[in-house]
Amino acid sequence: MYLVGVAGGSGSGKTTFAKKVINLVKEDISILHMDSYYLHEQPEKHFSAKGNPNFDHPAAFDWELLRTHLSELKRGNPIEVPVYDFVTSSRSEETITLKPTSIILFEGIFSIFDQEIRSLLDIRCFLHVDADIRIARRINRDVNERGRTLESVIAQYYETVRPMYNKFLAPQRDHADFSIGEETDIAASILSAKLKELSKIGIYDLNEASLNRSAFNFSEHQVNIPHE
């Protein structure tokens, strides 16, 4: 099976992009959201100066469980995905079963951040979108879907989201096979075609195959957007 990492800042369009790829590939493909792996209690040492949890710091996630679950999926085993409640900012006792498919898209702000997880990924993507677009999308999502106030969303952006993006998220672009701008329709078409091509020739682990990653010329599809 192929494991594809889709990273990018909050509001960059990761989930939308992943859904476009799923609609194009159509068969035997699923998605795993990194947001499901937020810790039940956030580490206080990474709280903001105002004492608020920092959900954009790498330490906000359950990395041990993520590594275990992604490894299990690569072995062809099902996993029990946690359910995170963004209204209460806590992990539910419920889980959702995810069975392995030929292609799994792993999307999240830090999906290509961890070295061990990167070694499990067959293809790594990074969505690079201008900050004004990302904050507008974040406001729309958090106010309409997560019950937040406009003031709290803006305060959080300047307090943690923007500095964490510059410090931790943006550097992930250096690890990406695909660097994607705002033309996500084109990028989704390229990625879905590449996945179909790999499936057709029967290579299911680029890290162990005799044909290495560079043989597929991922870099020729990069969309280079200037850094903020």
UniProtKB/TrEMBL annotation:
Domain (Phosphoribulokinase/uridine kinase) ranges: 4-180
Top-level taxon of the source organism: Bacteria
Entries under Gene3D superfamilies matching the protein: P-loop containing nucleotide triphosphate hydrolases
EC number(s) on file: 2.7.1.48
Biological processes, Gene Ontology terms: UMP salvage
Keywords: Kinase, Nucleotide-binding, Transferase
Top EC class for this record: transferase
UniProt cross-references to InterPro entries, sorted A to Z: P-loop_NTPase, PRK/URK, Uridine_kinase-like
UniProt pathway: Pyrimidine metabolism; UMP biosynthesis via salvage pathway; UMP from uridine: step 1/1
An example molecular function term from Gene Ontology annotations: uridine kinase activity
Family matches, as NCBIfam families: PRK05480.1
Name assigned to this protein: uridine/cytidine kinase
Native organism: Halobacteriovorax marinus
